[in-house]
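Bench notes, afternoon.
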Amino acid sequence: MSVAAQGGATDAVAHDVLILGGGITGLGVARLAARNGLSVALIERGDLASGASSGSSHMLHGGLRYLEHGRIALVREALAERAAVSRMAPSLAHPRRFLVPLHRGGRMAPWKLRIGLGLYDWLAGRLALAPHAMVRAREALTLEPEIAADGLLGAGLYSDVVMDDARLAIAVARDAAAHGAELHTYTQMIGARPLEGGGFEIMARDTLDGTDYVFRARTLVNATGAWTDGVRRQLWRALKPGAPEPAPLLRPSRGVHLIYPPLTRGHGLLLFSRDDRRVFFVVPLGHHSLVGTTEVEVPSPPVEDDFRPTVEEMRALRAEVARALPAHAGTPPIAVMAGIRPLLASEGGVGEASREHRVIEENGVLTVAGGKYTTFRVMARDTLEAIAALLPRAIRIVDAEEPLPVPPAGEPSLDQLAAFAVEHEFARRVSDVLRHRTSLWLSPDRGLAEAQRVAVVMTAKLGWDAERTREELRVVTAAWREQETLLARVREDS
């Protein structure tokens, strides 16, 4: 490594940029900066993509619902990125047809939906997928026989892209590393100070093996998602002691998704909540269906409990499934996931908050706030432009749409997947493999049965002792029990 252990660092600035945060935003910045010749280090206090980047609705999309709020530019930009990222990761992003049922007395009038879908196609331009269509009730029921038939007027059909959010983020990380970026997971910032002559020194600690590091960089990027305000405040106190603390940038919201066995015949569904009339989705995800999401405002920065789904949120989603797909009213969910969206602070309801982003420069510290997964490359470009303005040399930013590294081809064994995750995908814990590098988390036991085998492979690869192996399995089992307890309370309603 070019990163020196604490106490042994030289006075030289080792990196052009140090990125805090290993979600899709930070990884996108690392990839683009490294591809443009900058020396890059990234630290993430957990696993890569362990926050909102693995808790999304698993869609690369323009955001059809944003058209209602007049965010035309955002939708156009996101649709262009939908196409670009799909080309870069064809094995992880797949076009899907979505159906929008229309019911008598519903939130969306047929004429309004027709205009919205037409505008969505038009904004995609030459990059559009299969065009929209409007169908009668009988045709809609032929396509998806289990949607609620009472009062059904018809449906709209349109196209979007379903992706594997965590594995796509890992692919971006691999691309960044292939171009020289240093990625450090389970590494927590513990201190910061300015350097004479410019730049920063960041002290950090590996929370798994206890190693201390010192990173010296010309610029810092705070790309910590839901924790943005907390990290910004921590840096402010260290670098500007005594100065008034900055106002929060975010208004985060928790989104909960339920995982079901397949609920449709292959289509995604865009639906409208009965209680608050917000949009939610049924998304085909492999051999499962993802249902969500909720919108619950949480403090900034959030605390640990804010990341836990509540029984009330899960029951609300189940009620929506029962209303939209009556035949599945008694179908229990097999898993639940929650993430916190780093939404920009705004007036009005949190469900109407902007999905745009901001890049703020404060004496060499760049904060990336807001944004949505689909536009991670746009956020990276905007951030790199701000970084370039602070560097002593000029750089010409090029963002190539070359293919991202691909997961193992064919049908690899579990041993091969686990070994690949350690050797090429930065996995350091059993849970990393189960949740973010395979689809084992979608199995009924969330991969618990396979955890022992994964632990055997990782023990051999990483040199764990017996106690460390047992601890890894204890962590996985505890997480499974916690989720099972929560799901059991919701299943009691069946």
